[in-house]
Amino acid sequence: MTHLAWRESGFPPERVIGMGGLLDSGRFIHYLSEASGINRSSVEATVIGSHGDEMVPGTSLAVANGRLLEQLIGQSAMDEAAEKTRRGGAEIVGLLKNGSAAYGPAAAVSTMIKAILDDEKRVLPVCCLARGAYGLDNLYINMPAVLGAGGVERIVDLNISEMEAKALTASAEAVRKMVAELG
Fold first, then answer.
1. How far is CA 16 from the centre of its chain?
2. Domain locations in the chain as residue ranges
3. pLDDT tens-digit profile of 53-91?
4. Which residues carry out catalysis?
5. SS3 (DSSP) at 142
6. Which of 118, 92, 116 is nearest to 104 (CA)?
7. pLDDT in tens, 135-176
8. What CATH number belongs to 2-182?
9. Mean pLDDT of 86-99
């Protein structure tokens, strides 16, 4: 959807930003907090890739109180939190039915707007145009990016694991296929 909005609007790519990464990352943080018993405000984690089944929850970089969560709760609990994150959106829609897709997106968009209007230079996982980051090019996909007065000011290249890099490549291919279907 973000790629289509960019293509059809004619706006510069740094001004066309999607919020799927914020939604998915918020869910991931929730499930990691739940698994660890650590307050969600102390958990830092991000989801990259598509906003769908091929999303890539960054388990290798998730931290709480300065420690890798994998060391605190184990790989099995990390994998379970990642899987719950992948299913979380559908679960919410199933529970809330009509209007369920309003609350999370409203909060995400509000966070993005504040970062831009206040020139916060804040790193947020957003859907933005890849221009070489993570080996991807000319594709809108969720990545951590600095948001400020210029919109997407730069993409932050996280040191993701080899497995996460492969998953991101597969996720990007799924997004490319959907974009191609748009015509």
1. 15
2. 2-182
3. 899 999 999 999 999 999 999 999 999 999 999 987 656
4. 51
5. strand
6. 92
7. 999 999 999 999 999 999 999 999 999 999 999 999 999 999
8. 3.90.110.10
9. 65
- 11-51 pLDDT, tens digit per residue, is 999 999 999 999 999 999 999 999 999 999 999 999 999 98
DSSP strand E in the chain: where? 43-44, 47-48, 56-57, 63-64, 67-68, 122-131, 137-148, 151-155
Structure tokens at 151: 């919109």
Could you give the C-alpha distances from 22 to 104, 125, 161, in angstroms and in order? 9, 5, 21
Q: What share of the chain is helix, strand, coil (3-state, %, to 5)?
A: 55, 20, 25
| Residue 51 burial by Cβ neighbours in a 10 Å radius (0-12, 13-18, 19+) | buried
What is the rounded distance in angstroms from the CA atom of residue 19 to the CA atom of residue 51?
9
Amino acid identity of residue 163, one-letter, is M
Tokens of residue 57, six digits:
């929850």
- Chain length of the chain: 183
Structure token digits, residue 67: 């420690």
Conformational region of residue 119, where left means phi above 0, alpha means psi within -120 to 50, and beta covers everything else: left
Amino acid residing at 146: V
Q: Within 10 Å of residue 12's Cβ, how many Cβ atoms?
A: 12
Locus of tokens 């040191």: 159
